[in-house]
Amino acid sequence: RMQRLHVAAGLSAGVPVDATPEQFNYLANVLRYEEGTEVLLFNGRDGEWKASVTFPSRKKIRLDVSEQTRPQPAPLDLQFLFAPLKVGRMDYLLQKAVEMGAGVLQPVMTQHVQGKITNLDRLQANALEAAEQCGILDIPDVKPPVKLKDLLESWSPERHIIYCDEDSDTQNPVPKLLAIGESRLAVLVGPEGGFSDDERNMLRALPYVTAIPLGPRILRADTAAVAALAVVQATIGDWR
Ligand code: SAM
């Protein structure tokens, strides 16, 4: 499997791209690539391109771009709304959301949130690394945190929010999802401490929100994220 790398530069045949110092270290010292080894490059705009590694000097790698291997697809439309978790768990949560096809990652501050967003750049880099690994050509967009109340007040109702609620009456989410039908989608998962009753009432009162169960057990928030995104993608998502 060819290594996939994100580059900031534009991509076109015959226009070489300089590897960043981090990429140099990874390709030369970690992967020990030699002259001519091929990689795949993407920048979120020009699709995916094959490039070969060249060493203009011992300390530099230049990537000679050759041919486009995949065109730039339409942006991933699914949004993932999540209450921040403690650092390590949040990295994992974001990575899973990117792997499961979320294009927008929106941290939501709720009453019982236990995590906080201290370094948005690090989360964005983490999401980009997940994109490199899982083969998407979009750049996942990690947004600055907003309060749940503010998010809902400014929400455009043509995007339906599917919120994971362990207190739902039934256990099977599929019928409730199918009832939503055609719509642009967002998935919302609560914090380790769950949503508050006020938050639940606020969410349940909105016509563009559907509470779904994810089985009879209490899932960790990151488990719930993967379970919810998988069932949404498999029933009414675009699963791209
Ligand atoms: N409120 C519980 C508590 O305090 O132990 C659990 C919260 S759970 C760890 C975090 C989030 O995962 C919940 O807010 C919900 O969004 C989701 N979740 C966990 N289990 C779920 C289930 N069985 N059905 C639907 N959502 C679930």
From TrEMBL:
Q: Which family does it belong to?
A: Belongs to the RNA methyltransferase RsmE family.
Function of this protein? Specifically methylates the N3 position of the uracil ring of uridine 1498 (m3U1498) in 16S rRNA. Acts on the fully assembled 30S ribosomal subunit.
Q: EC annotation?
A: 2.1.1.193
Q: Name one GO biological process term.
A: methylation
Q: Does the keyword Acyltransferase apply?
A: no
Q: List the subcellular locations.
A: Cytoplasm
Q: Annotated Gene Ontology MF terms?
A: methyltransferase activity
Q: What is its main location?
A: cytoplasm
Catalytic activity, reaction form: uridine(1498) in 16S rRNA + S-adenosyl-L-methionine = N(3)-methyluridine(1498) in 16S rRNA + S-adenosyl-L-homocysteine + H(+)
Q: Where is the Ribosomal RNA small subunit methyltransferase E PUA-like domain?
A: 20-65
Q: Spell out the Pfam families in the cross-references.
A: Methyltrans_RNA, PUA_4
Stretches assigned to the Ribosomal RNA small subunit methyltransferase E methyltransferase domain = 73-233
Keywords attached to this entry = Cytoplasm, Methyltransferase, rRNA processing, S-adenosyl-L-methionine, Transferase
**Full protein name:** Ribosomal RNA small subunit methyltransferase E
Main EC class of this protein? transferase
